[in-house]
Specification:
The complex is a heterodimer of chains A (87) and B (225).
Chain A: E1 2-12, H1 19-30, E2 41-50, H2 53-68, E3 74-82
Antiparallel strand pairs in A: 1-2, 1-3
Chain B: E1 2-7, H1 14-23, E2 28-32, E3 41-46, H2 60-63, H3 67-76, E4 81-84, H4 86-93, E5 100-102, E6 110-118, E7 134-141, E8 145-147, H5 150-158, E9 162-167, E10 186-190, E11 196-199, H6 215-220
Parallel strand pairs in B: 1-2, 1-3, 3-4, 4-11
Antiparallel strand pairs in B: 5-8, 6-7, 6-9, 9-10, 10-11
Classes of the chains: A alpha+beta (87), B alpha/beta (225).
Chain lengths: 87, 225
Amino acid sequence: MTAYTATVTVRLKRGVLDPEAETTKQALERLGFDLSALRSADRFEIDLDAADADEAEERAESMAERLLANPTIHDYEVSAVEAEEPA
Amino acid sequence: MTVAVVQFGGSNCDRDAVRALQYLDIDAERVWHKDGLPADTTGVVIPGGFSYGDYLRAGAMAARSPIMQDVRDAAADGTPVLGVCNGAQIGCESGLTEGAFTTNKSARFQCEHVHLRVERADTPWTEQFEEGDVIEIPIAHGEGRFEITEERYDELVANDRVLFRYCDADGNVTDEANPNGSTHNVAGILGERDSVAVLMPHPERATLPDVGGTDGETILHGFRA
């Protein structure tokens, strides 16, 4: 078994209204920034032991499906890399 | 013969629901979620509030607590189940009903009286109404915008699962009368059975005459078996 860090990124599906992102965009514009769009996403970093990266990803994907994302409104992406050695 | 009002950490409309039901002479008691549903449960209210501090998404944590399996089993057996506000969010998150309730279009918490058009008058919750009747009930939520894919929405409509829509005082379903940007003004829907319903407005806050408005009373009558 190897220590992995799986990353799950959950974002609203394209076309689903994101009022918080819209409010954030307006606040940036009030600060004088020029931008055409802003999207927000939630990122979860999960440390786990697995035989290989595929298994780590599979388990993280299952977590996304069961809890981290709501399939009605969200898409998600999963990746896994070997965990960095503690300093 | 007891309606179980399921209390999670962060529920805050549980007492109101018990009081409103008792006012209607319907036996009701609060049930702590870790204790499971009592054997004599004849109905279930999932009350409003902020269970688990709305962590992750409103209702996401409570929906995955063990008592919700009891609630799904009871619902499948025909026990009436009503999810109100946070209870509606929990209902959708737990698969009792389709769709999801998410951030209001205004991105603000909204606490106001709204009008609802009764879309189905042949359910336990609405049998004292006529289809198209307009009722007035308060909302109090920041995440009440009903979202669902267009395909699933078409199925909801085809299967007659829409129970209430936001409307104006005359019953017109308009964008102006939609307080939170809900898809097609949907305010409340039915589960697989008509005895399972979730809605964002608070019928228990429109039941005691002293508090103003009693249109919610009729919905709670759904627990009279």
